[in-house]
Design goal:
This protein has 269 residues and is of the alpha+beta class. The chain has 8 helices and 6 strands.
Length: 269
Amino acid sequence: LQALPLTANGKLDRGALPAPEDSGLAAGYLAPGTPEEILLCDLVGKLLGLARVGLADNFFYLGGHSLLATRLAAQIRTRLGRELPLRTIFEMPVLGDLARTLRSLPKAGLPLTPQQRPVELPLSFAQARLWFLQQLEGANPNYNIPVEVRLQGALDTAALDQALNDVLARHESLRTLLVEHDGRPQQRILPMDAAPSPLHVFTSSPDAMERDLAAAAAHGFDLASEIPLRATLFRLASQDHALLLLVHHSAADGWSVAPLLDDLSQAYA
């Protein structure tokens, strides 16, 4: 196009864009042939949501980024039992080149296997960092992960409460405290009968909702005495609610949000 169509506000008018014409790039498609090539193209296609991926494609030009590269390396380890360094993906983003390196990759270390749980559970490096920061700064909402969901229609509050408890029962990290014992920090996983329900219900209004949500999201978790999941339900009308799920970064990250919502939705249903 000589110029992109714009709206009256000067923004891109996506609806006015014409359907793309065949640029001839499809002629450069190189189909995978070896088992390694087929596996790599299949994994990349599934990661990026693409129906067809070829050896001439560049992982990053297709829409890949560092987080997806991490997932690709993890899946290569699982499927091939080989260690793919992240640096290699950046150095060889063209899939044909990357596929040729798969055969020469070193074998992955021993797979993780269940072990007997020790009496004292040390903190992971990420947990230790957040525990130290809380000792230094106190409870800090900067490490919260807020997820807001607007719920329209009839809501069964009791079922929602039970669904949240189902999620707690399935994921020990959501009922893990970071405590100090004999001068050393450690994890303490609460049994379900000792874990409080994370659901708190309040009445709000459309005018006050944003203010109420912001106040709830600013809650500071005490990692030594409070589970790292808090759910606040605001009742705006009989069939209009806003749910704020607040998870501390010691128990979750950005990738955790989608499976958390999936688990909660299935449990509620």
